[in-house]
Specification:
- This protein has two domains: about 5-190, Rossmann fold (3-Layer(aba) Sandwich), CATH 3.40.50; about 205-360, Rossmann fold (3-Layer(aba) Sandwich).
- It has about 450 residues and is α/β, with parallel strands linked by helices.
- Helix 14 links the parallel strand 11 and strand 12 (about 360-365).
- It contains 18 helices and twelve strands.
- About 50% of the residues lie in helices and about 15% in strands.
- The protein has helices at about 1-15, 20-30, 35-40, 40-45, 45-50, 100-115, 135-150, 170-185, 205-220, 240-250, 275-285, 290-295, 325-335, 350-360, 365-370, 370-385, 390-415, 425-440, and strands at about 55-65, 70-80, 90-95, 125-130, 160-165, 230-235, 255-260, 265, 300-305, 315, 340, 360-365.
- It starts with a helix and ends with a helix.
- The chain binds NADPH dihydro-nicotinamide-adenine-dinucleotide phosphate.
- NADPH dihydro-nicotinamide-adenine-dinucleotide phosphate (NDP) binds near residues 165, 238, 261, 343 and 373.
């Protein structure tokens, strides 16, 4: 339709050199066409042009000193994309590739994802091109403190509540929180993913991975299947990957791969609980490389490769954006893969998504499948406001219920708009409608 392509063209012109942002906008806008066609109010309200423009984009200098006393400078960002249904909410990414394009794509996706969670959260994302890999704890601390020296004036428990993402785990959240507390002189829930002794929620570390498996289980139920006995490939070996593997082991699946940015390992016997505990120590404590897993357990290691050539029933991309190419998708399908549940954000390139949809496999896009992470961040915010922690049973039950509801709402929207079984259309429309209606209700926002 003209309006959709016209809007994409405006985004292309206004955001030259931002391919990831354009990719995310194109994917969402093209798939919500049935809702735009059906509802005149969205066309009259010029909602498309409004929703693709961040409410606020903050960029700042982050100077810090390395262990040799040298001054280093990185670039910090916070994208406050949309606050129509709640305070901005979304992670901070620390990785050398971070730039406005990547953060704007993540913030845009976050808006619709947060809407799907059923909780009142707007969308945002932030981070820096600082890479914690290879840095000492002291260097990471000095960077986090300097980053928060600027960020603190833009966030707050009712304004914007960041969390972790690539390169930001418990250690980084701790340093960021400590600095916020010193600057603001208050103990409030301005970050999620906090330590359990100081306002964190049980199950938050597990939530993204567990949620991606819960979502996969719901997709399988529509075909009267279960996860038990399925052979699964997983990419990444960070937070999302580790707890995807943990939940897959718990539900009786066999996980045969994990990876990092250097390569992947193939463990034909499957990663069991003991091997996973060793992997978690390798990645979270010793901060080593995945190659060491192969040396430890006699698995195969493939340098510079991704795991999608390994035969599997189900694939769980848990590393980064655009990690499944059109060629990878062809290989996955040829090898009999019938389910892809995205714990990572936008891991499948458009050519891969086209093939998954054409072959009608169970394809759960990230904004639905990995929404358990931010949903549990929302639960952490509830506990912080009430100053009352919940048990892990309670949080996990709520997380599970939310993933079941997201799946139900996505399927209902897909069916309502004439595309049953298409989780892309269902997730994008269900997420969009709630935000767009709130924007219309609120006038000139
Ligand atoms: P982590 O930093 O904990 O782990 C990231 C993993 O992916 C690491 O194994 C890393 O390897 C690998 N990786 C990162 N970049 C690349 C790359 N360019 N090529 C190959 N491998 C790469 O991050 P998370 O697990 O938190 O995040 C992973 C994905 O999940 C991201 O897409 C994130 O946006 C998404 N996500 C995370 C949520 C969360 O709660 N943490 C919530 C929702 C989505 P290496 O260590 O070598 O860099």
């Amino acid at each position: 339709m003209g309006l959709i392509q016209d809007t994409i063209e405006i985004v292309r012109k206004r955001n030259a050199n931002e391919p990831e942002f354009l990719q995310a906008v194109t994917e969402v806008l093209e798939s919500i066409e049935p809702a735009i066609t059906r509802h005149k109010k969205y066309r009259d309200g010029n909602i498309l042009q409004r929703i693709v423009e961040p409410e606020r984009l903050i960029q700042f200098r982050v100077p810090w000193q390395d262990d040799k006393g040298q001054f280093q400078v990185n670039r910090g960002f916070r994208i406050q994309m949309n606050s129509a249904i709640g305070p901005y909410k979304g992670g901070l990414r620390l990785h050398s590739t971070v730039c406005a394009s990547i953060l704007k794509f993540l913030a845009f996706e976050q808006v619709f994802k947060n809407s799907l969670t059923t909780l009142p959260m707007g969308g945002g994302k932030g981070g820096s091109d600082f890479d914690p890999k290879g840095k000492s704890d002291n260097e990471v601390m000095r960077f986090c403190q300097s980053f928060m020296n600027e960020l603190f004036r833009h966030i707050g428990p009712d304004t914007d509540v960041p969390a972790g993402d690539i390169g930001v785990g418990g250690r980084e959240i701790g340093y960021l929180f400590g600095q916020y507390k010193r600057l603001a002189n208050e103990f409030t829930g301005i970050l999620t993913g906090k330590g359990l002794n100081w306002g964190g929620s049980l199950i938050r570390p597990e939530a993204t991975g567990y949620g991606a498996v819960y979502f996969a289980q719901e997709m399988l139920k529509t075909r009267k299947q279960a996860m038990e006995g399925k052979v699964c490939t997983v990419s990444g070996s960070g937070n999302a990957a580790q707890y995807t593997v943990e939940k897959l082991i718990q539900v009786g699946a066999t996980v045969v791969t994990v990876s990092d940015s250097n390569g992947f390992i193939h463990d034909k016997d499957g990663i069991n609980k003991e091997k996973l505990a060793w992997l978690m120590d390798l990645k979270n404590v010793r901060r080593g490389r995945i190659k060491e897993y192969a040396e430890q357990f006699g698995a195969s290691y493939f340098e510079g490769k991704r795991p999608w050539g390994i035969k599997c029933d189900c694939a769980f991309p848990c590393a980064t954006q655009n990690e499944i190419s059109g060629e990878d998708a062809k290989t996955l399908l040829a090898n009999g893969c019938t389910l892809v549940s995205e714990a990572a954000n936008m891991p499948s390139e458009p050519a891969a998504i086209d093939q998954f949809l054409a072959k009608k496999i169970l394809y759960g896009p990230g904004k639905a499948a990995n929404a358990g992470g931010v949903a549990t961040s929302g639960l952490e915010m509830c506990q912080n406001s009430a100053r009352m922690p919940w048990s892990s049973y309670e949080v996990d039950r709520k997380l599970h219920d939310i993933m079941i509801t997201i799946h139900k709402n996505v399927c209902a929207a897909a069916t309502e708009y004439g595309a049953p079984d298409n989780y892309v259309i269902g997730a994008n429309i269900a997420g969009f409608v709630k935000v767009a209606d709130a924007m219309l209700d609120q006038g000139l926002v």
